Amino acid sequence: MSEPRRTIRVVAAVVERNGRYLITQRRPNAVLPLLWEFPGGKVEAGETDSEALRRELLERLGVDSEVGEWISETVWDYEHYRVELTLYECTIRPDAAGRGPADLQALAVHAYRWVTSDEFDQYEFTPADEASMNKLLGVCDA
Question: Where does the record place the Nudix hydrolase domain (predicted)?
């Protein structure tokens, strides 16, 4: 019998602006290097999903955010672990200095893009994000 896989809870933001969605590219030295995903990250012990998502967007892109409605949850089994990925609608809100969606910084990501849903297939996404995206777009019955 195989050992149970370690489960990692991850939250990600679906941020839409003028018909485009925010996606980020993982760093070259990360697990699943240079693949694209919705911005977010691991939920740390003692954090709510909202707290984790706001922290991750600040650490990765240097912006404050407001977490909105739950969208979906996807469970994906990788070779050595399982990811429980939950998507939330999010908005980037201006901080005290007035910085907002136009002022993103690639702090803890390799790159970011604003893309339409029709452009998603031009980017190689992580398997969990791809499954979530398919749910979001109604491509499959998952």
Answer: 6-141
